[in-house]
Amino acid sequence: MAEIETYAKPSLLYRYRPLGIRKTASGSVRADPAIIDRELGAIEERYVFCPTYPEMNDPMEGIYASTRRVQEKSYYQDFVEDVQNEKLSLGIASFSETWDNELMWAHYADGFRGICVAYIVAKLLEGLADPDASLARVAYGDRPYSLNLSGHRNQERSRAILSTKNLKWSYEREWRLFASTRGKAGHIEGAVRHV
């Protein structure tokens, strides 16, 4: 069977991050030292934090559809539970192909008050200690991922589900780093190109 290949891989990917900078009621600017320490710590300690999908900002994250024929299988509920558990166990970090998208700055970088970290993709991937880590380009469509009962391991199905988003989000030009668990996905020195 033929496989889908991705020949044009980006050399840089970008991660928009908040810094917790807010205007107070009096109009002065206040920074949240804990958020700044967290974001700068990730750069200095060479890791990308990978939360689980319920911790992400999209309420439609991780949805999928299945046909009535699939739903009528006697083991369908067990299958759905297995896929849900696998989705919940994964750590996910989101990246973009672009650093200059105004909507991304507004949504993910504290309304233009955060930072954007550029990663050299080859060095980021080379340094990941997690043997099950992978980087996937998000596919955008007008329908959720269609779940079937054959063809992939649960881990692959879960990653496919979490790599599918509605067309309305296509401006993000998103890539996702999947780690086998929630937490810090370490990388080698030199993976961060600039901030």
What does this structure look like?
With 195 residues, the protein is α+β, with helices and mostly antiparallel strands. The chain has one domain. 26% of the residues lie in helices and 29% in strands. The chain is built from six helices and 14 strands. Helix 3 crosses helix 6. The longest helix is centred in the middle third of the chain and has 14 residues. The chain starts with 11 loop residues before the first strand and ends with a strand.
Task: Please supply descriptive tags for the structure shown above.
6 helices, alpha+beta, three-stranded antiparallel sheet, single chain, 195 residues
TL;DR of this structure?
This protein is of the alpha+beta class and 195 residues long. It has helices at 33-44, 68-71, 76-89, 102-108, 121-126, 154-161, and strands spanning 12-17, 21-23, 29-31, 47-50, 64-66, 91-96, 115-120, 134-137, 139-141, 145-147, 164-166, 174-179, 183-186, 192-194.
Topology summary:
Elements (H helix, E strand, L loop, with lengths): L11 E6 L3 E3 L5 E3 L1 H12 L2 E4 L13 E3 L1 H4 L4 H14 L1 E6 L5 H7 L6 E6 H6 L7 E4 L1 E3 L3 E3 L6 H8 L2 E3 L7 E6 L3 E4 L5 E3 L1
Parallel strand pairs: 5-10, 9-11
Antiparallel strand pairs: 1-7, 2-3, 4-13, 6-12, 7-14, 8-12
Helix pairs in contact: 3-6
Give the averaged pLDDT, no decimals: 88
Domain count: the total is 1
Q: Quick one: how many beta strands? A: 14
Largest sheet: 3 strands, antiparallel
Query: Roughly how much helix do the residues carry, as a percent range?
Result: 25-40%
Kindly name the structural category: alpha+beta
Q: Beta-strand level of the residues, as a percent range?
A: 25-35%
Rg from C-alpha positions? 18 Å
The H-and-E topology, N to C, reads as EEEHEEHHEHEHEEEHEEEE
What is the tally of helical segments?
6
Tell me, what's the shape?
A: globular
